[in-house]
Write a structure and sequence with these properties.
Helices cover 27% and strands 10% of the residues. The protein has 11 helices and 11 strands. Strand 6, helix 8 and strand 7 form a beta-alpha-beta unit. Helix 9 runs parallel beside helix 11.
Amino acid sequence: MRAMMQHKPTRLFLAALMLVLMAGCNAQSPITVFVTPTLPPTDTPTAAATATATFTLVPTMEPQAQPSPTVSETPVPTATLTPVGSPVFVGPIIGPGYVVPPSATPVPTATPEGAELTPTQTPPPAATTAPEATAPPPTEAQTQVVPVLPNLDPNQLGIQLDINLDDQDWNEAMGRIEQLGFKWVKVQLPWRDMQPNGPDERDNEFFRRIEQHLEDANNRGLNMLVSVVKAPAWARSVQAEDGPPDDPATLARFITIIFEEFNAGLNAQMVGDYIDAIEIWNEPNLQREWQGTLPFSGAGYMQLFGPAYQAVRASSPTVTIVTAGLAPTSTQSFSIDDRDYLNQMYAAGLGQYADVVVGVHPYGWGNAPDARCCGSRGWDEDPHFYYLETLDAYRAIMNQNGHSGAPMWITEFGYASWDGFPLDPPQEWMKFNDRWAQGGYTIRAIQIAQERGDVGIKVLWNLNFAVLSGLIGGRDERAAYSMLVPGDACQINPDSPNHTERPIFWMLFDAVHPDQALPDWCGVPPNGIPGLG
């Protein structure tokens, strides 16, 4: 009994302590833990975009009832990358040797002349098998005033892809394009890879894979613009970089073969025409694209263009033929001023082709699409750095050369942003545009072209190059233009095997789907969107 009495205070103390602890626990709110499954990493991230957002699109401004992760306004990479060599310049921008020209005198605005033009191609009906669109998650920013986007015509919009994809990657990319609602796709046909062994080759694995991709795009109701580029080694005596064949007739022969294979028309063994428009070469005013025996000039390009034009017309009277889009640049050791080059093309006979379209690459660098030359911050000191200046300069040259009835097609353009990527950007001007300016400037640029009346198809560069392995760590400029990036829920993570969207993707989706209203586009910026007021 004494022993029991001696332990009684201890037991009372323990009981009281347990009651206090229980009361404290009952006073707390339950803690909910969300566990997100992590996909196993792949050996090499593919070039195609995989839809990873899990938010269902609804045609109202109402937030969804189910819990959604919150997207912060500033995506922060979760990995620290080490630079891999020097920045890579293989996209639309001049390389590291480019020298910004001295300040230029502002040029007068050229007013487009001639009747309002319409595209020469009529897009087929939209595909009916597009995947269900997913919207970015609602955030606190949706209580702000969301800018009203202009309605953009998807029949006039396209996007460029790498053709060298396996079937799975191609299908994923096609699904994203159908999700956006665009009706045009642009790919480059690398001649050197399609005919590596000789002028009559047409049955290797790469050639047939391209045929399957083009057929698939056709079956989805998409229009296809192909750009024929890069002569094979057997057709060139100069092997440095890329360039045209020594004999332009060899390119004409290649074009004849691809039309025999890809545009068999009503041939019972084929389903139809896979190519709706063809662009003859790419940026030939850059030396890296024109190493060879043909003169490095607009006249040299017309030596290639003439036989290529005849080959296309011998195969099809209706396929749109587009002149090579020129890089907007000045004359230096490795480039020719695109305005001068276009004048050289006309001096060599371009104006005699009444049924062609003039290709344009009106990159705006860090300058707004409405802006005019010139400024003083760098990369704004010359008309070549301005979207509108390039469009107006080309139209003025076309009109002066009796080509006022020809439309322009924007066969490549876009606004780059390094916002959210680690490391320094490959070009200083890429710091000028955050991810919101990238989206707003792109939307406004398309709207301007849509309202002009002399611009037909508008092809954006690019959908998904940022998800290619090593491009962000290598500071490759192509990643800065990409709409899709590695990461999840609008957050960039260079090491993620998943792919997510930048705001530009959802802004374009919203602009071509006026019947659907997104609450935001990976958030809403507190200070508005540049280019959209």
